[in-house]
Specification:
- By secondary structure, the protein is α/β, with parallel strands linked by helices.
- Helices cover 21% and strands 29% of the residues.
- It has a single domain (3-216), classed as Ribonuclease Z/Hydroxyacylglutathione hydrolase-like (Metallo-beta-lactamase, Chain A).
- The strands form 2 sheets. It has a 7-stranded mixed β-sheet, with helices on one face.
- It is globular and about 50 Å long.
- The termini are close together.
- The relative contact order is 0.15.
Length: 228
């Protein structure tokens, strides 16, 4: 079977397996890169990498309406419970757990994680999804870090990396990250949402092809790509 990866915009992705729909960082309302309403989105699972407003997004409303299980670090999962989300699963960095869709591992990310109301959001994270169809790494918001070499040991089929700079690593550091990860396919995210993170993805893709063994997959918001 294949997995459909839909790029909603910013850092929001919808991943559809044969049986499940997984949302990562569901930022729909107030997201200038999409016109999709959170009221029209369905999910079985929601993964939140860290506490910033553009990643927590519409998790609460979607989870309450759909009954989706929300997966995040322990602090954020506990915060969602206080917002009335009934189904949560808290984890921490380095931890791995099996869900109906496959296994999920939280990885290091170097960033912040304060929640929208100023509450403590614990440590930011990336995630490795271990699906029957392949392994997907969503780095979350992060700087470049050398231990991405260890994440490469997960035998990734796809990496999703921020390239916007200013708040996360930029294009140059993302090239180093791609070299570390040794992954055949890479999708950029967290760029062109607002002026401080505007980037030329054509130039980025050319650098990926020139300097790495990976294939860049640049998606416009609303476009999807299939992992076979």
């Amino acid at each position: 079977m294949s997995v459909e990866i839909l790029y909603v915009g910013h850092s929001t992705f919808q991943i559809r397996t044969a049986q499940h729909t997984i949302l990562i960082d569901p930022f729909y309302s107030d997201n200038p890169t999409t016109e999709v309403s959170p009221d029209d989105v369905n999910a079985d699972f929601i993964i939140v990498t860290h506490g910033h407003f553009d990643h927590v997004g519409d998790t609460v409303s979607i989870a309450k309406r759909t009954g989706a299980l929300v997966i995040s670090n322990f602090e954020i999962a506990s915060w969602f419970e206080k917002q009335g989300v009934q189904h949560t699963h808290g984890m921490h960095l380095g931890g791995e757990f099996g869900f109906d869709f496959g296994r999920l591992k939280l990885t290091i990310a170097h960033h912040g994680s304060m929640l929208p109301d100023g509450s403590y959001g614990g440590n930011p994270a990336g995630v490795v999804l271990k699906l029957d169809e392949g392994n997907i790494y969503h780095a979350g918001d992060t700087a470049l870090f050398y231990d991405m070499n260890l994440i490469a040991d997960e035998e990734l089929d796809l990496a999703i990396l921020p390239i916007g700079d200013n708040f996360t690593m930029g294009p140059s550091d993302s090239i180093r990250a791609i070299e570390f990860l040794r992954c055949p396919n890479v999708i950029p995210c967290h760029y062109n949402t607002w002026p401080p993170i505007e980037q030329d993805t054509d130039a980025w893709a050319a650098q990926v092809r020139e300097k790495t063994e990976s294939e860049p997959v640049v998606l416009a918001p609303g476009q999807s790509w299939t992992l076979d």
